[in-house]
Amino acid sequence: MDKLLLAVKLIITALVLILFVQNIAVVEVRFLTWSLSLPLALLLVVIYLLGMVSGRSLMGLVRRLGRRGEGHEKRP
Asked: For the chain, which end, N or C, has fewer CB atoms within 10 Å of the first or last residue's CB respectively?
């Protein structure tokens, strides 16, 4: 089982490396009045990390609100 997991990790790593190598072209990103030029691969990493952070924060908020709601229901 460990060998299978290692093989899957290696395949995913290879696919990510191929993605980065094929997307090194510089793109311009504009947001409101800001403008930034950076490689597409770096932009993909930044967007992925921002999505991870915001998703984790949102799930934490949902869990906290869920616990708070459960506490109010149990009171007489």
From this structure: C
